[in-house]
Amino acid sequence: MTVREIEYRDALNEAMSEEMRRDKRVFLLGEEVAQYDGAYKVSRGMLAEFGERRIIDTPISESGFAGMAIGAAMMGLRPIVEFMSWSFSLVAADPILNNAPKMLYMSGGQFGCPIVFRGNDGAGGQLGSTHSWCVEGLYSNVPGLKMAIPSNPYEAKGLLKTAIRDDDPVFFLESERMLGTKGHVPEEEYLIPFGQARVARTGKDITLVSFGRPVNFCLEAAEALAKEGVDCEVLDMRTIRPLDIESIVRSVKKTNRCVVVDQSWSFGSPGSEVAAQVHARCFDDLDNFVHRVHTADVPTPYATNLEAEYMPNARRITEAVRACLYLA
Amino acid sequence: MPITTAYKTEIQRVSILDEHGNFDEKLGKDLIPDADLVRLYEAMVTCRVLDEIAFKLQRSGRMGTYPQNMGQEAPSLGASYVLNKDDWIVTCYRENCGLFWRGVPMESILLHWMGDERGNAMPREHFATPIAVPIGTQMLHATGLAWASKYRGEKRISCTFFGDGASSEGDFHEACNFAANLEIPVVFVCQNNFWAISSPGKVNCSAPTLAQRALAYGMPTIQVDGNDLFAVVKVMRDAAAWTREHGKPHFVEAVTYRLGDHTTADDARRYRDQAEVELWKTRDPITRIYDYMKSRKLWDDSKEATTRERAAVNANAAVATAEGIAEPHRQDYFNAMYAELPADLATQLATHNTHSLGQTEEAAHVATEALAKAHASHH
Ligand SMILES: Cc1ncc(C[n+]2csc(CCOP(=O)(O)OP(=O)(O)O)c2C)c(N)n1
Ligand SMILES: [Mg+2]
Questions:
Q1: What is the model's pTM?
Q2: Are both B308 and B374 inside the same structural domain?
Q3: Model pLDDT for residues A243-282, shown as the tens digit of each residue
Q4: Measuring from atom 7 of ligand 1, which residue has the nearest CA?
Q5: Which DSSP state fits A86?
Q6: Residue numbers in B near A316 (CB within 8 A)
């Protein structure tokens, strides 16, 4: 049997298309998603299949289409909102942070907001600081939303299908750097539940906890460290909200060490949240405090040389692991 | 008479030198002195040559994503030509020609798109702002800059540029509303090039002109052939004078066309009809002035050859300068963070090459030592 491999962007496309076939309430809107098949070709062919009523090109107004989606969702529809980049969602801060995650709460349970907000997240493309946002730190702070961050094509498809079926607003963080990455995605339908981490690599010496694209850097570092006799366990958290702290605790109780790798700024981030919870839950199990690898506390540098060293990478992860194991 | 007309208006369109060489003597005579026209022409040629070189640099991996300006040289150039040197020019990314006229060095723009923040460090004396990537945000800044001038009792105005697509963003409407209602002297210049990446004009505006958007804010508005430097100069001169005199905003829609792709990351052939591009090539702002100058015997083949040669020399020199600038050091971005580098960032700077980013006890020691050293060398 051949293993089917498809690109990350096509995995997203399949997830949306399958869910749109299944549920007539689902529709896609955003800049250039229809006629142009999406700025990054994620919605390739979808206009042809679903027509203009369900695949909608919008004006360049993030606040406009995010806010409209909220109204539509309150009426029982299920919008998928594509931001060309999560960087541009910042001009839609009020609808996505102040309305969507609170609508159910503020309407006393009357109006939910089953919307998927999705788009490219993360630095690494030499696009300058205003175009390279990692929004997970900023947005995951807000109660009422869910946040998924897939690390490869398989995860992208399974998590997006779940996101579309979810009754609450889901922030779905894709990676432009990975859109062309190929990976195994089976023909058969599958869904990946939220709040259940994946053990991407089993190991006994140390637990690496990560989210999204940096999971791959952790796996890279783990391979290098294996040659030095260090056996890393790598957890791909899949969702930041809900956070599967139980899987982390279980792993840390086994390895007694933990490094969190998070591409957002360290201050008030998913990484600091994990560290705080691990310290509280595994205080007596830890051989060392939780080490963290983050981006530096500056806007994403434009220059390639600086951007590369600004982001978490295998070298810095390796170093953190050694430090945590007192090998440095 | 239960139904009357509440409001009625019309929008003027100004054209002086059209693509067939017709020249409106009444409007165009004495508008631009011949000597200036030659210089303006050379500026457009130089900008075009640089644009073509930049495109090739990107293709050969020597530059990051770059938005070509080709075809849209006239609006910003005409504006810079008539604005006072200390009026603000608040641009997005298709106003190279106007910025160069102001004196912004070509190497700055190149350096920026090569991926270097230092290219955006516009010398203060040019009254230009950093290139704005989040669409539409600069229009409010322009309004705030002019507001500050008003606050300080200065006569300075702002002139801001944006595309047809940008007029969909809330920021655009907020900027217009504020400028109009708070009486702030801003000239809003919409470069309508009919496309916002792959989105045709109708996706972003259902009205027949973009100029009429200004009517809703009670702002005078006009449309101009944006590929006609003469018309741009007239319209911008009038708009700037009106704005300065009344201390209120004015709107200008400059109808133009980008002859290149949206950026080097785009391939416009996928959504644009080649016939449309060919049509607009016949309306090129540069050839129009060239033909005019030739017909007036201001220009000949040898002058053209010299100009092209000089443009290439200058553009290549700018490339050499930009490429000769050493890579930025991490110190550069840490130092630009706050008025004074705070202790926690100093720690991160000192420990940046390690995993810890200042989170560990050792890191704190490293930083304390580094700071002490820095202080010692200071005194
Ligand atoms: C807030 C925001 N949303 C989306 C984008 C992506 N984007 C970059 S340029 C562009 C089109 C702009 O079109 P227009 O304003 O007509 O200017 P033009 O490029 O045609 O000169 C878009 C959508 C962005 N940079 N910022
Ligand atoms: Mg445009």
A1: 0.95
A2: no
A3: 999 999 999 999 999 999 999 999 999 999 999 999 999 9
A4: B135
A5: G
A6: 354-355
Contact pairs from chain A to chain B, CB under 8 Å = 122
With contact defined as beta carbons under 8 Å apart, do B137 and B161 qualify?
no
Interface contact A58, partner B, CB < 8 A: yes
Task: State the distance from the centre of ligand 2 to the C-alpha of B276, rounded, in angstroms.
Answer: 15
- B171 CB near ligand 1 (under 6 Å): no
A32 in catalytic set: no
Backbone phi and psi for residue B52, each to the nearest 5 degrees, phi listed first? -70, -40
Q: Tell me what percent of chain B is helix, strand and coil, each rounded to the nearest 5.
A: 55, 10, 40
The pLDDT, as a whole number, for residue B376 is: 73
At B130, give phi and psi (nearest 5°). -60, 150
> How confident is the model over B283-293, as pLDDT tens digits?
999 999 999 99
- A16 and A132 belong to one structural domain: yes
Rg over CA atoms, chain B? 24
Angle between helices B285-295 and B34-59 (to 10 degrees): 150
Number of domains making up chain A: 2
Pairing of the two strands B88-90 and B158-163 = parallel
A-chain residues near B166 (CB < 8 A): 60
Q: Which of B181, B167, B239 is nearest to B209 (CA)?
A: B167
Q: Is the pLDDT of residue A8 over 90?
A: yes
Query: Sorting pLDDT into bands at 50, 70 and 90, what band is B364?
Result: confident
Among A61, A126, A320, select the one facing B355 at the smallest CB separation.
A320
Which of B324, B342, B366 is the endpoint of a domain? Answer: B324
Q: For position B233, which CATH number holds?
A: 3.40.50.970
Do B154 and B252 reside in the same domain of the chain?
Answer: yes
Tell me which residues of chain A, numbers 294 to 313, contact chain B at a CB-CB cutoff of 8 Å: 294, 296-299, 301-306, 309
Q: Do B133 and A130 touch (CB under 8 A)?
A: yes
Q: SS3 for A268?
A: coil
Alpha-carbon distance of B199 to A66, in angstroms, equals 18
Give yes or no: A62 in active site. yes
